[in-house]
């Protein structure tokens, strides 16, 4: 995008040089100012208390089954960058599993002089489906989304000499066979989209340089991403490709007879394949002859029947006003549907052999989040069941379809949950929509407006915010005490833009209707005041990424509602966001400021352009990370600099020099970040 005369002038573009000496000098001065304000003995005590939660050796080691082994990535005090390791099922069930360490990331970082951050593994499926040996490991040099891919042998516990090694980039990769990758990466000029992701997938054969990778699939530069993948399911081996036009529009292709055959559905219908089945989820109402399939429904049909022209879909799920489908997972013979009903979980088990008959799992207490998904979709009908609540430490159970799941692991408790209650309330937004929110607070809560209250939310990209146990929130907020002995109240708002009620809830706050998400959040804040939970002076809010844009708008447009704002890794400059980092990929969510007509509505939620001198703004902490290559640090920098130039003295800035979009590459950095945010908010709200 080029500069356009309809966009406002910007005095702070000099801060957009991410690694420039002048901007980094400004960052260091701001960091010193913020740390001088916040870092003292009390801060250090809280930081260590949070770190003890993050480093706890009693937390559940989440695992992924590959063959006969269960793989886990683990960080703790002794291994801050982490261990990639595996164990057997028998050992995993014990209180003290015996782990075989495959890769010590701290040792690798020390040996190679690079602060590697482990970002996952991609296994080659062996012919027998059991003897997994080769994997591509994703390693980021700084916690950013860009990473190298390196081939690893889990039996030798070493990188493969002369094996596949892809330079650092935002790559997308799939094993086609032992000697072939389907690879999208930065092959040079013209190979990446305007959104900074691969626009080509190429066939890379073992021993060949990147320059000799053979073209296979390609999408236009203005699209978000192009990717080809190989499905290795025995009996259903096939290549697929997807043209990701934007966040909500796709076109999926199947390789047949040397050509890419499109799956002929509208681009806003999500497509997935499992063995012989094609499942489809429309994001808007989909009209077909004789029937309309509502947004958020789930349809299934035999793939070959569909390709032959049949449209005899079976409706597996039809949304209701209060119930939405969040995701689905196949075991070998069954389909698990994970639903939300007024933001509490429900799970259905569908049996295709019995005409898709459905049974509900009796595993979901009210006001809790429970997820069910396959242990190994190729190896039987076992499923994991993960349950959590604001006051309920997470439990991991394992079951087989048709039998009751048995608990395998439980997370420890990090605070005294018996002293607190969880409630759900509904605020009424400006247009009359009822907006749910959760309130976690002391059982003896006084409704006089004097409770230090933290309101959190997100409201974008159809992401649902659900109940979840957090030892950090418990220790850093609920258990804190002000001078009168009052503890904190934590509130989670389920505003539009999210996915709590399906794609309609999300689309209600897209682009020109973005204001609805902010009106919803403001309505929750007003409801908390109406109910006597917190007055303005005692109410703070926090959010990150799109949630940073949310609370940035609270700061700029609703300053009268809040006493403090913690705004993390945020979008804030909506005039230039498409030119910064991966911002171009979010046009479908926010709109395109290069279009003068769209800028007219975008400017109404661009906090960078809405702040004005002489306004009574709440205390604000704006934080980010230098290595964030998704949103990038520059919008946060510019917002703080502009507010300070306007004479707003109570705005503070902090930038971690590593850590990517999460703001932290290890538990120590995460603990410091959480301590900064919580300490800032607590002191601002309690004095």
TrEMBL record:
Coiled coil: none annotated. The keyword Cytoplasm does not apply. One of its GO terms (biological process) is proteolysis. Residues 4-224 form the Peptidase S9A N-terminal domain. It holds the Pfam family Peptidase_S9. GO terms for cellular component: cytosol. This is Glutamate--cysteine ligase. Signal peptide: none annotated. The keyword Chaperone does not apply. GO terms for molecular function: ligase activity; oligopeptidase activity; serine-type endopeptidase activity. It comes from Arthrobacter crystallopoietes BAB-32. Residues 484-685 form the Peptidase S9 prolyl oligopeptidase catalytic domain. Keywords: Hydrolase, Ligase, Protease, Serine protease. It comes from the Bacteria. InterPro entries: AB_hydrolase_fold, Pept_S9A_N, Peptidase_S9_cat, Peptidase_S9A, Prolyl_oligopep/macrocyclase.
